[in-house]
Design a protein that fits this description.
The protein is built from 21 helices and no strands. The protein is mostly helical and about 375 residues long. The protein starts with a helix and ends with a helix.
């Protein structure tokens, strides 16, 4: 999940020569009214929007939709953006790329970003977004090239996190982890940039098998933003892998998004809590709504549901393989290995092992699973 964080962070970094910085902590960047709607009167009459108003509203809808995992808000953003898609201005194209990547159309998003970068080689937002997408797709060396190109005015913690995360997938996990921990110790603050760095550090520590250190990084991230969906999801996954179900329940209590509700349901089912059946009914309703919307970007979620709720390893490996064909974050690879082991799919296991070896990607969690197989 942490490879998605640059795509959120990129929205806070402008394309010009100077990044936007709020003048104080009291500066309000966006309001999220009950129900998740922003600027209701503007949404009711989009034809009256000026271009600056439209840009701000689309950007806020995208960020709210992503941070809260609300597809409806992203749909509203897309509708507002559609009349400007014919324009080549980078401001519209970057928003288009954000919507595409969050819909998991990574290939199309990368194509849009490449056009922006071709005309604006120093566009930091586009470079950071493309680096994140390339990491998601498993194109680590290309991602590193984008990270290296990010202009010097971008905060050094952002540039270091981007580069070291990409390097960690090219046979240099241990050295990248140590280097990023050192940079973080020197440059961290309470910003979204630090939140991203902490998530990357936690994931690196997990891949190195240093779970105690990973938990420390996750806890620090929660201190910065206790409601971050990405942090809650990755830390929740970590706790489930450790069989720390009571802690996972406390962490994910009140979860609203499908991904967090699934993790909560897994923990509740493991402990046979009083609300486990109610949680499963709510989760099933959410998944039914996904199917009704015919969204094709939830294969990973459905694979996890099939594997850990229904116990259907055959469906799980099919869905996980479909998901992994276009999204190769560490969590996605780990899920595919678990599903392949559960279903006895030796062909898929061999394919994953070959891919890991070819890219020199280290993940001690996967090594441990493979070593324990019969």
């Amino acid at each position: 999940m942490t490879v998605l964080m640059p795509l959120l962070l990129a929205a806070t970094i402008g394309a010009g020569s100077t990044p936007f910085t709020p003048v104080s902590d009291e500066r309000v960047l966006a309001h999220l009214p009950a129900g998740g709607f922003l600027f209701r009167e503007k949404l009711a009459a989009p034809g009256s929007l000026t271009d600056p108003e439209r840009l701000v509203l689309i950007d806020q809808l995208i960020n709210a939709g992503k941070s809260q995992d609300q597809p409806r808000l992203l749909g509203q953003a897309e509708a507002l953006l559609r009349p400007r898609l014919h324009e080549s201005a980078s401001q519209w194209q970057l928003l288009h790329a954000e919507i595409l990547q969050w819909s998991h159309d990574f290939k199309a998003a990368e194509k849009v970003l490449s056009k922006v970068i071709a005309s604006e080689p120093d566009n930091s937002r586009a470079l950071l977004m493309r680096a994140g997408i390339r990491q998601i797709r498993g194109h680590y060396r290309q991602a590193l090239q984008d990270c290296v190109r990010i202009p010097a005015w971008v905060p050094p913690l952002v540039r270091a996190t981007c580069s070291l995360q990409a390097r960690s997938f090219t046979g240099r996990l241990d050295t990248s982890y140590k280097a990023l921990a050192k940079v973080y110790a020197e440059l961290h603050d309470q910003s979204a940039q630090s939140l991203w760095s902490l998530g990357v550090l936690a994931e690196m520590a997990e891949r190195l098998g240093r779970d105690r250190e990973a938990e420390t990084w996750y806890r620090q991230a929660l201190l910065i933003d206790p409601e971050s969906t990405l942090t809650l999801a990755t830390y929740g996954e970590f706790l489930l892998r450790q069989n720390k179900y009571p802690l996972a329940l406390r962490l994910l209590e009140g979860a609203r998004s499908e991904s967090l509700k699934l993790l909560y349901a897994i923990a509740a089912r493991a402990l046979d809590t009083e609300d486990s059946e109610k949680t499963l009914v709510e989760l099933n309703d959410m998944l039914a709504a996904i199917r009704l919307r015919r969204e094709d970007n939830h294969a990973g979620l459905l694979a996890r549901y099939a594997l850990d709720i229904r116990g259907d390893a055959v469906s799980a490996v099919r869905l996980a393989r479909e998901h992994w064909s276009h999204q190769k974050a560490p969590a996605d690879t780990l899920l595919l290995v678990r599903a392949a082991l559960a279903s006895g799919d030796r062909v898929t296991l061999a394919q994953v092992q070959d891919w890991l070896a070819a890219n020199n990607v280290r993940d001690d969690r996967i090594r441990a699973l493979l070593a324990a197989k019969p």
